[in-house]
Amino acid sequence: MTDHVALLGTKGGPAIRTGSTNPTSNLLCLSGQRVVVDCGLGVTRGLVDQGMALKDLDQIVITHLHSDHYLELGPLLHTAWVAGLKTPVTVHGPEGLAEYWTHFLASMQNDIAIRIEDEGRPDLAGLVHFKVVDPTRGFTIGPLTVRAMATLHPPVTCYAYRFESAGKSVVFSGDTSYMPEMAAFAAGADLLIHEAMLGEALPALMARIGNGDDRLMHHWLRAHTLAADAARIAAAAGVKALALNHLIPSDDPAFGEAEWQASIAADWSGPFYLGHDGMRIPL
Ligand SMILES: [Zn+2]
Ligand SMILES: [Zn+2]
Predict the structure, then answer these.
(1) H-state helical runs in the chain
(2) CATH fold group of domain 4-282
(3) Which positions are annotated as active-site residues?
(4) How far is the CA of 106 from the centre of ligand 2 (A)?
(5) Domains of the chain: which residue ranges?
(6) Residue-wise pLDDT tens digits, 237-269
(7) How far is the CA of 13 from the centre of ligand 1 (A)?
(8) Which Pfam families does the record match to this protein (predicted)?
(9) pLDDT digits (tens, 9 = 90+) for 95-108
(10) Alpha carbon of 127 to ligand 1 centroid (Å)
């Protein structure tokens, strides 16, 4: 397994529409370790499409508890279980995931009990362990060292993560508004995967969604990062490559690759990946 990141879901926000991409999920493959980063809708299919056997799932890292980043966590774990999972899975993330899991198990309790009794499967509850991330300490996953930094994503606690091993480093910004501290956190990384929105496309998106008010626009502006600012972070950090994900918007034909490229051109001239579902980025 060569080192790479697969972007499984690349749109920002929880809604999907005909022709749209999926909400956020990623697969990091580094030093023989596979780590799922975020579990938005579509993560299970995305992993399988990358050739991963779900019974090999063992490490999951969640940035924050907005549904577009963890709605499919329970279904992923359950589907891995029916696909043959019998070894422990560790889920790292902010407070609240263990409670989500308790309620997910309760909602599926009939099915899970039947499969244990009728199919001889191990108890799903006992296979999954939760570790609350402490950004002052970081953590390790096998050979990987992981650092976490709280981002600016009000009103939710969200972490950016930096994974390092064998001289390679990858940073996921998580959801965040523009924060200059991200440049220091991502300094010298081989790859920065930063969330991004295209400012000039937001009014049209607002009109298409149709059921929000000014608060939705205010949320975008106060909790997310313009593509040009993400490019500025990448340049200040001196990263070797920049990828944009969590794209807002992701499915407006009036705003395609050319518009995104144009929005970063003044600030970033290095290797660039405009995320799409299934994109593999070598490390
Ligand atoms: Zn999000
Ligand atoms: Zn969010």
Answers:
(1) 43-49, 67-70, 73-82, 97-107, 109-119, 181-185, 202-209, 214-223, 227-237, 257-264
(2) Metallo-beta-lactamase; Chain A (3.60.15)
(3) 68
(4) 26
(5) 4-282
(6) 999 999 999 999 998 889 999 999 999 999 999
(7) 5
(8) Anti-Pycsar_Apyc1
(9) 999 999 999 999 99
(10) 27
